[in-house]
Amino acid sequence: MPTSAILAKPRKDAGWWRTSVIYQIYPRSFADGNGDGMGDLQGVTSRMHVLKELGVDAIWFSPFFKSPQKDAGYDVSDYKDIDPLFGNLEDFDNMVAKAKSLGLRIIVDLVPNHSSDQHKWFQAALHSAPGSAERNRYVFRDGKGENGELPPNNWESVFGGNAWTRITEADGQPGQWYLHIFDSSQPDFNWENQEVQDEFDSVLRFWLDRGAAGFRIDVAHGMIKVAGLPDVIHHSSTMSGQDSPDDVKTTESEEELIARLEKENPFWGQPGVHDIIRRWRSILDEYDDRVMCAEAWVLPLSRMARWVRPDEYHQTFNFGYLETPWNKEKLEKVVTESLEVFGAVGAPSTWVLSNHDVIRHATRMAYNQIPRQGDGVGPNYEQPDEARGQRRARAASAFMLGLPGGAYIYQGEELGLPEHTTLDNKYRQDPTFFRTKGERVGRDGCRVPLPWEAGANASNGFSTTGESWLPQPDSYRRYARSEQEGTPGSTLELYKRLLKERKAFDMGNGEFRWAPEFMNENTLAYINNGILVLANFSGDPVVIPAGEILVTTQHDLRLEGELEHDQVVWIKL
Ligand code: GLC
Fold this sequence. Notes:
Elements: E1 6-8, H1 16-19, E2 21-25, H2 27-30, H3 41-47, H4 49-54, E3 58-61, E4 65-66, E5 78-82, H5 89-102, E6 105-110, H6 120-126, E7 140-141, E8 164-168, E9 174-179, H7 194-209, E10 214-217, H8 254-264, H9 273-284, E11 291-294, H10 301-304, E12 315-316, H11 319-322, H12 328-344, E13 350-352, H13 361-364, H14 386-400, E14 406-410, H15 431-435, H16 476-479, H17 481-484, H18 491-504, E15 512-514, E16 523-528, E17 531-536, E18 542-543, E19 548-552, E20 562-563, E21 567-572
Parallel strand pairs: 2-3, 2-14, 3-6, 6-10, 10-11, 11-12, 13-14
Antiparallel strand pairs: 1-15, 4-5, 7-9, 8-9, 15-16, 16-17, 17-21, 18-20, 19-21
Residues 71, 74, 111, 182, 218-219, 295, 356-357 line the site of alpha-D-glucopyranose (GLC).
């Protein structure tokens, strides 16, 4: 049984970001304003009121900057402009104004680890000589082997294959190699270079001056590479360098573990990154109330907490939590650990279950064995049990949204959208699919455009024309917003209720403790600001304790007041 000690206490100085619920918009798939099948900023502006009704505090946008879209916008060719696919800077300003009128904040995505190969700096590097200032903004090296025909080291791309590509020099001869931890269209910047650092200072200021409430920082633990670029010692399939959260040698101290991971993975989570973070933080601190949230896949959580010390990032996505299955013991462990390690550095935990890189949790939780990070589910894979996924996902969301700290919601999860698991390969766009020759189907299945009005057209109202850059699965008609709005028991109404009560009882800034007195071997219970959150994981129904039921995932609560397996209830004691 867990301890009943108080693990989180309310803070007097709780800035908005410590407790906020932030909604992630994936711009190409939220709403299409011009009928071309690609979501855009005007589409977002016209539909934004529904996010206010949902009850979120802010919106984080995946990149909408100028980009050849080789990695859906995470390959930026101009950091200070909007890609015409999504609109222009005026559309951005209008969107910020609309958000402001609704009391919502806008967070933009900063992609500092790499640019697009079409960025003017990379083009200049290609056309300059080895050793030139232009090349020195990126990571160019001579190859190994007699004629430089072998890559400079053994690093692998996160998307599969080699992390180096050889270029042709001005004289037509095969020349140097450049580093790309992701796709070959995404060359890594050289963050040791002052010019790169200065340029990003100005990018930060550009968006802060334009009204952005802050940044989600892409690959926030990348950027710095160990000097000399030594070989990777242990190839990991994940961005944390750990194959699984359990990849810890029992004899290792925390310091030994961290030192080992830094050594094994010379481009992830290096200590030098902290200097960059502090530099950015000092810029944000010149403005009111701005925030940075790190995409830092560094585990264990005690290591991740180093990224959110008082003068570093404000938040970091709790990927340890995201990777935790719907399991009583594991959830108890990760919540306790999160509150302890983040609490120790004065940071909130930032809970999250889904985003544009992982299998949607309504599908992920239908499986016993969770597929690895960055993978998707394709038509030839074992297909998920939809009902089980729905039940567990609703329960997992209700469990998460009662926890103290911040929370992130990925567009469509409030509709209970499942992953598109039968997407035909001909539609795939994720570089992972191409770089692994289809061995990993990649992330397109969680990026499918949202269904708004059931049956309005082929894209269920995502666009006026029915066009849609990825087709929706048939089931999306059932999940469309129009089917759920005002429908008792729908996932959308459940989320609205959860967010309303969370706010009403200030649970984001709550006093939290486990409540063993309400648990049995199949249940987990906690109390946050006087609200009991009880989850039944398996086995027999349990009697619901006395009190006012605020919200429950089980819309047909039995007359006797019993909570079934994979259900959650919030009770005001
Ligand atoms: C981050 C993004 C992901 C992108 C990668 C490279 O992990 O979330 O979508 O592919 O960085 O920028």
